[in-house]
Amino acid sequence: GEDVEQSLFLSVREGDSSVINCTYTDSSSTYLYWYKQEPGAGLQLLTYIFSNMDMKQDQRLTVLLNKKDKHLSLRIADTQTGDSAIYFCAESSSNTGKLIFGQGTTLQVKP
Amino acid sequence: GAVVSQHPSWVICKSGTSVKIECRSLDFQATTMFWYRQFPKQSLMLMATSNEGSKATYEQGVEKDKFLINHASLTLSTLTVTSAHPEDSSFYICSASGARNYEQYFGPGTRLTVT
Questions:
Q1: Pick from A92, A96, A102: which is nearest to B43 by CB?
Q2: CB A99 to CB B109 under 8 A?
Q3: How far, in Å, are A24, A28, A105 from residue A68 at the CA level?
Q4: What's the whole-number mean pLDDT along residues A28-46?
């Protein structure tokens, strides 16, 4: 079945760039997503990329997609303490809109 | 735009009682709503998908008689946990998508504690 994998933890210093990586197995994925979850809260849609794109940039966020290797990354430029959260990668391949989530990467930003 | 609310944000109930959680799309019509369950420090587990006016589609292993889902309008879906037990204690999150079904927006979640 479909599977999405992420590393569990990343620690960076404030002002540095953060890169969170994700791999997926479903070659028919049409959309890939990054969500942010702060403690005790729901998920915030940060950005998504269509599978025929290689890159998408939105302010401090850059998403890179390597479809051949089934690898997705999220780069956060000039990381701030407010970026500390859990980041989930997700993929969707069916017309039902069903999302398959990774385990989440906890980003810790040190001042 | 694309705001989804949930009510209540937290609830404590006694074992054996039922609890209803509401999920509303505030500024768009949600043709599809999803219900997830999240255990501490874990990812989201999809429980069911509901389309307005249709019966919900449950994921394998989710008891449909225990987790009743109703999606009566384009802005409201409800999840009722019937005869709740302590093992049902969890964080329940809903999401909704509208005309652009590849964009899914999440509610803030409901913390359920069964004593």
A1: A102
A2: no
A3: 11, 12, 23
A4: 91
